């Protein structure tokens, strides 16, 4: 029977004559170092701080919080195994446990899966003991055993002994007499006789054969739970028949319960109605050629880059304000969704993606608002594939969950995009698990989403988003799984629902498409895997072009993604009219004026258009540029508060005569100068609204160049994911922790010689200063170890086993087996010394 490495170690110990463990601490003591490391790896909360010895480790492993956390991480069959142990006898022999899960008829799948489930429970110290005496740790039994306050998923009720604990002895005798049993002299033997009857398949069958059909119908309603039923003060005859024979037992004046032994007989010995020994496999919904999947994923990856860039470019002058409670206002979210032409939920995803990648943050000013960070400019300078990797890498481990936006927190407040309370610590685990499940399918195969959710439910039936066993929290976990599928498609990790080659490389999977980017079975850093994924994605992305097609209707068509300098320049000179495989730009007087405001001249614009167009520059576009340039800068606006200067005094006269200029508060200071009562920016906007094209000038009279990309937040770090409990320890920490626990355990369990003066159990040894000095000097000369009592400077007392190597100047230096290192102790702080027994030296 393959029951795992830990069980083989236990059998080896038994074969060598070792006694069966009587406690969990003894069971842990019998493990090898690999077994202890496996326990600490599976339950990292046991390492905070590192236990002093194995007794303390066993105690900590049995605490309620640690046991709850371990149980919540069990798969469905391991959990069902633990639940079966909780309703079985204590201890439970392995054949009895198998019967509780497989029933009287047996089940080959359960028989094959049960050894692995028991080995898993043993590894995590939830179960200990040999197969003949399997014991569920006491805390786990209390959590999983059925009770009126906490029903068990098994649907079983209390045992006969538990249900009759408060019953009068006379009533118990009446029950066994009605059941056809011989009366006894005490209630204990009577309960034992009734229990024996209910667990005897033959005799129990004969008893039920005499039951009225209506009574059997009552049992059928209770057999799979809940086992409790309400009755009236005068029960119906079928209920009375069952009650008189103990097949139903009273728990209160109006409530009856079906005893556990009766239910197990009616169930054919099964503790669960539907045991699930085998994990459901993901179902293939449709197959595609891997090349089709990669092409679709690459196209979506390019859209993701363009969307993030468009979003942050629209906030180049500063984004919307930050709410007082944090986050983005609903109206601003609606505006962003409309600008990106996506739903509000998708807009939340893009916002949170940029925020998680460190490209977006609040500026921290008094009137706080959102804006791109300096990291955004560095991101723009990267090749497209590397920019994609910079987005998906933090997404994998992010705990912020944009799908929650619009919902409510625990206090009933609405959750906002970029706001607080969006972290869900289970999100990274769910994302990784969904992608790995997709990777188990053949390349190009898209999975049925419901089959993926079914697999998650089997793997973590109790695990919720916040580590809770509640159904609501578990529902959030499965919602995160659904959002992961959508977000992976938006990012280009999947194409048409199938995992792409670059995504396989990102996960370091040695499959066909990622064979050149991932070492089979090797674990690499996420940054290295991201670089490999970018290498695979780069040739799949559309190649950037350096030209456009100018058309007579004042539009330009970009036949593909434009190179960065061309895209930036054209984005200033024209407005984007439509996006897709080919982007359409439209030239307007406002867009041309924007280019002139940025410092370009009409000649520069003509040269730019001629250089980057594969078609001749249309005459209407040339006229538009010349017409706007001729009027641009004809007026000069400066600070008086503000002024307007123009060499043509008739133009200034027209402005003064226009009634629409009244709000600007203009008055003539000289034939070519008007003063205004408003600031220069408002004056510029007002004159442009009147149809003029003024230019701003400095105090020296130079034309000011307006740049749209001047505003950035101070340097900001990306949000740190909220950990889901203690981090998983690495091999170095595990090795050190196991050594420390072993050393402490050797010191705690070391056998020492009896002192000449008897001491209380657990008390520090007491010897005179002369005896202490003589003993440690002798130990240093012979190289033997001694047991000492030590009180540190804070007054804390401890017992230690040391091997002295040097005694001088009032100090003893030696190897401390308890701390597993060389230490020095002042002799005056040693309370006493005792020699170890000969077999411990």
From TrEMBL:
Domain Helicase XPB/Ssl2 N-terminal: 548-670
PROSITE patterns for the chain: WYL
Record keyword Nucleotide-binding present: yes
Signal peptide feature range: none
Keyword ATP-binding tagged: yes
Ranges of residues in domain WYL: 771-833
InterPro entries in the record: WYL_dom, XPB/Ssl2_N
GO molecular function, one term: helicase activity
Protein name per the record: Helicase C-terminal domain-containing protein
Species of the source: Streptomyces narbonensis
Higher taxonomy: Bacteria, Bacillati, Actinomycetota, Actinomycetes, Kitasatosporales
